[in-house]
Amino acid sequence: MRTLLPLLLLCACTGSLVDHAGASLSGGDGGTPACLATCTTDVAGATRRCDGDLCTYECPAGKFKAAGGCHEAREISAGTSHTCAVVAGEARCWGANDNGQLGRDIPKAGSFIPASPAGLPAGTVSHIAAGAAHTCAIVNGNVLCWGDNGSGQLGNGTMAASTQGVAYQVGNISGAVLIAAGGSHTCAANASKTFCWGNNDLGQLGDGANIPEAPRPEATEVPGAAGALALAAGDSHTCAITGSGVRCWGANGAGQLGNNTTVAALSSPGPTSPDSLSGASFLGLGLNHGCAVVGDKLKCWGANGAGQIRGVTGDQRSPQDVLSGVRAVAGGTGHTCAVTTDQTLICWGFDGNGQLGAPGQTEVDVNLTNVTVAAAGAQHTCATANLVTYCWGSNDRGQLGADPHVTSASTPTPTPISGL
Question: What is the Cα–Cα distance from 298 to 160, expressed in whole angstroms?
Fold first, then answer.
């Protein structure tokens, strides 16, 4: 994706809801008489809030409580059933936590409101990537990962099934500027090299190994993807924008490498064909499809069973012209969203859970303006518009971050995230 988009939603889970510090939410402005009598806040736009004896504040809906204030998300990434954002140099995640992908102990429930991953070192979070059930972030140029590790996708040298929500630093990488998380693999790049780790059964690590290859729990350099300008990961494929255009590797059963072949998988980066998409400026991968922005033209390829390519039928093994006037793109399991040059948002494809932004549609001009970022998950979508962050679609695991008391199966219209 610059964002991710994998697998099918898991079953809904129950449990107590938690705030940023792990305290139970009382609902409303509940608190002790002493707190209610003395609690005030001078945070711009916020209202005071008492949780027991704790005097804190609540941000307006659509704003994140971070860095001592109320802020919008500058970057969003959506996984299968969780969502993460970079807010004022901090990370916030919400949704499912069955594998610790929120950065919380696995015995603790998921969160229906944005929460801080535990254990991140002091410093600036610059980028974040949500995989199927794991998350990675760039913090001061280092890569830290947490959540599911059954295929070594956390890059900590082991393949323990879970790390209990603890963040681990990936070795061998410094000065990282790009991060992408796939179904069960992860990639990152600095100014000179690209690295991948995790599952490698379909060549998604790009290291040239035989297919299938055992997982690699340590960062491995990707030959042929040096100096990447953008990086994105699907379920089992990966693409990068290089100085020579778009290069993809991994699974190709639905044409997701865009190389106009029927080769099932490739373990080394190769160009899309017949057009290498030279000059591409933005890259977004879905579960089994991919899109790139070249100039202001959106070109997509790969799986198309739900109409995620737009305008054509059947899977597409080479890039197809999809839309003009586009500046960014996000791909989900069966849907795609494009941020236009006039900063509106258009989504198309599968809408079984309202992830397009309106019920019962195959294409929706979402009612948002001044859109700056967008992310598409398995069956939900999020975007920041007019400095407010909204999510819509499936919410059975809290992946919309909307409200601690809203647990509906889906919300088909953009809903501001909770300011708690």
Answer: 40
